[in-house]
Amino acid sequence: MIAPSRVGGPAPAVHPPEGLGASLGRLASRHPVVWRLSSLVLFFLAWEIAGRVPISYAFPTFSATLVALVSMMADGSLFVAYGSTLQPLVIGIAISGVVGVVLGIVMGLSRMAEWLAAPLFVVLQAAPMAALIPLITFVYGIGLLAKTLAVIMLALPVIVLNGYKAVRNANPSLVAMCRSFQGTKLQQIAKIIVPDASPVIFAGLRLGLAAGFIGVILAELLITPTGIGDLITYHRSVANYAEMYAAVVSIILVSTLTLAALESFETRLLRPEKRRG
Amino acid sequence: MCKSVSGVKAGFMALALGAGLLMSSAADAGKVRVAFGDIASVESLHLLAAFERAKEQGVDIEVTYLKSEDIAAQAVVGGQADIGVGGPYALMQKVKAPIRMFLQLSTLRFYPAVNGQFYKTWKDLNGQEIAVHSRGSGTEAIMKLMEDRQGIKFSKISYIPGSEVRTGALLQGNVKATIVDSSGRRLLETQAPGKFVILPLDGVNATDEALFANQAFLDKNAADVDKIVEAIVQTWRDVTANPGVVTEWRAKYKLMPDLPAGQVAEILPYFQELAQGNAFPLNGGGAVAAKDDFAFYTLSGQLTGEPANLKVADFWDTRSLDRALAKLGTK
What we know:
The structure holds 2 protein chains of 2 kinds. By secondary structure, chain A is mostly helical. Chain A has 2 domains: 20-59; 70-274, Orthogonal Bundle (MetI-like fold). Chain A is 79% helix and 0% strand. Chain A is built from 11 helices and no strands. The longest helix of chain A is centred in the last third of the chain and has 38 residues, at 185-222. Chain A is flat. Chain A starts with 18 loop residues before the first helix and ends in an 8-residue tail after the last helix. By secondary structure, chain B is of the alpha/beta class. Chain B folds into 2 domains: 29-108 and 206-328, D-Maltodextrin-Binding Protein, domain 2 (3-Layer(aba) Sandwich); 111-198, D-Maltodextrin-Binding Protein, domain 2, CATH 3.40.190. Helices cover 49% and strands 16% of the residues of chain B. In chain B, helix 2 crosses helix 10 (245-253), helix 5 packs across helix 12 and helix 6 packs parallel to helix 7. The relative contact order of chain B is 0.16. The chains are: A mainly alpha, B alpha/beta. The interface between A and B is medium-sized, with 24 and 29 residues.
């Protein structure tokens, strides 16, 4: 079909005034990642401006931090640092994950175990860990053991308490169904309670992992400077603020990516119904 | 877009300005706020006494204790403190912070200590592991300097923050070679006489702590700064002549009244040792100290560039010190 030609009248606007906003909105609703990216871009822009004002002599711009991050990756110092930071983190998270989930399930199933252990973990979760971590050194020295313990102290309580609450609040009608189908106690736990509790247990694991990252950085800043903690303290002491911020940003990135990976692992393997079509 | 960026920028400026105003209104007019980078200890008694003597000359001084030297330096740069204690060379060179040092308080006094069962001399440390305070610290620079001078190479440098922690590790046998401060050295000598060897350390003469302030503060408050500098230089000379006077000042000015008896007993030996070793900078450092520092801190990584090309005026403001020395004479 051919559009009727207009002669003499005002030329039609190629983009109506509200067109840009509307088309952006359409783009964003079709690709939600656009919103997320634009939020990041806005944040980095604000950072760049704040660094250029500058709000402090010790506050680098976003671009300087990015350059420092790339140069620390290029000279390998960042990877060497992660080599030593990840040791206590991985050991601590592995121990907290296994012990925490098992202990949480046991506490959820048995009142006796709950009375014995729950108060301890509630207190541990409420305790100001930054004040307690230096005390670890009095007993366990300054090595890998002390740092692993710091990770466990932060990660374990949240994993245990989530597991315990998840099991305790397992859907009673599902449990009753299992009983009416003459399921054994073991089947009731393995096939009904734990699968039903798994989303909250996984939420606990994610929170525990995030707490573990906090624990390992606290340990590296408060016990002995190694890995990322060393990069942060060293670059601060010689006033390389861009490098210092780059180290901080890198740990936030690694922590965020690890958490996202854990979440997608959970969605893919355990909760297929949550997967987006 | 440009307009909105400048709007945001203006917003930030307004915020920063508002914060600045809040801070300046919080600060009492005429009060000199001094920020220490550490808690007060026996080792800072003479400085506290010197501040009391400056107060007698009419300077209103308020001392606060912060977690580390970095934070004290940031407090001065940010305007929450007027004078800081430390050695912020990196801050001045790398981010061009408008602060200047104006009086040297102490030089690095450290003692390389080794377990006598294993090592006797510097040469024995070739290929061995040593422990120092932290990466980029003065203790590391001292050990690296000695590595060069002695023609040896350590197999590994490990980092254990805190001289008292390294002293304990040496006593327990966890490390065999490290570097400790003077109280650590005395502890080694009293706990295990003869077991540890203190290796000789010559020609290391770098600033450990100095007073620094914003250039604007130094320009505006020259009279107060002069009185503080005079009081400290005079105090350092008095302590060198008679170390026992520190105990008298502690009683007179009621300094650190809660000090435990064990530490009170340490006051006299500590100051006697420093006085005998002529450790107090009797002329306040100045340009001579700056030159020594350039050589040492370029080695440690705090400063970059050739020591000969660094300018004293970029790091020090010696006007108050020069006036004080003209009045008190040099030693």
